[in-house]
Amino acid sequence: MYVTAVIDEEKCVGCKLCSQVCPEPNAIKFDVSKKKSCIISIRCKGCQICEVSCPKKAISMKQVLQKAV
Amino acid sequence: MSLDITKINPHFEDVMPQEYIDLVKNGPFGNEKSQKDLGTFKELLEEHPLCAGCNLALAFRILVGSLPNPEDTIIVGSTGCSSLAFSQLALHNIHSVFGNQNAVATGLKTALRLRFPDKIKDVIVMAGDGATADIGLDMTLHSWFRGDKITTVMFDNELYANTGGQESGMSVRDTVLYMAPKGKKFNKINLPDMAIAAGCSYVAVVSTARTKPISDCFKKAVLITREIGPTYIQIYTPCPTNLKIKPYESKKVATDRSKSDYQFREHITDDAKKYLESLKP
Fold it and tell me: Out of A24, B65, B193, B195, which could bridge B232 as a Cys pair, Cβ 3.0 to 4.6 Å?
């Protein structure tokens, strides 16, 4: 069991702050067409830095029970 | 390195991994990126084995993402946590003996100057505080005394994180660590002032509390190194594993320290200032 971050797309305003504070490369992608961030959950280590630094509280942690593919 | 090396052979384009195609088409090779573009392109760094919430990894990622000229950059690393990320880096890099990184970079810079006299080649040293300030202090200082055109970046996590948390010369006085249970007995080394005295053209002290200063200072330092002289950047990167804090609290630690005793400061000589102004369009 481990945790990954998930983004609430309705709250995300596309400020790209999460992708600038994430220590993992390529873990948070910015969708240019939708102007929202999205998380590649396989790469997320669950450190919660994005959660505490999101100004709109759009990121929350989700428990994953199954093993990642 | 020529940019032609990264180009994909059109006959193999259908079997190349999607990430490699992204790296060549939208990546930082050939078009300069900065920290605000992170997330919109495939980065040169890949999945690294550093801990969750490691601020060193964050600083490393921002530095690699804001290189002005990644195809002509060679990074010299040294033993420590930072060396774990080098094997996942899509750039030329050298792993040196512990503490030898600036001496290796001097030889490399000389060889590149003789081999490619009319090309810009950036040699950047990225090492931890143990390699820069404790074990490799003489190599670091002497490369500054000689005026070698090298950018030195230090990831200052204030302890030996890779070997279990011994005190280093950069630890703050009275810090209690896993392998320093009685606390440190002497003061933190003031390496930025030593760098100014040793003749560095540009010295900056930043922390991971804010990412824009890291990117801006690093770009300035690399540009100044090309023409003027040695530069030095010190980045505060708290280690959540050895400070016994939760990974997400490292952000708060960096913010608190950046407001008290690890404030942003910058020293730039007049020559370097004039050179930077002459580069502006």
Answer: B195
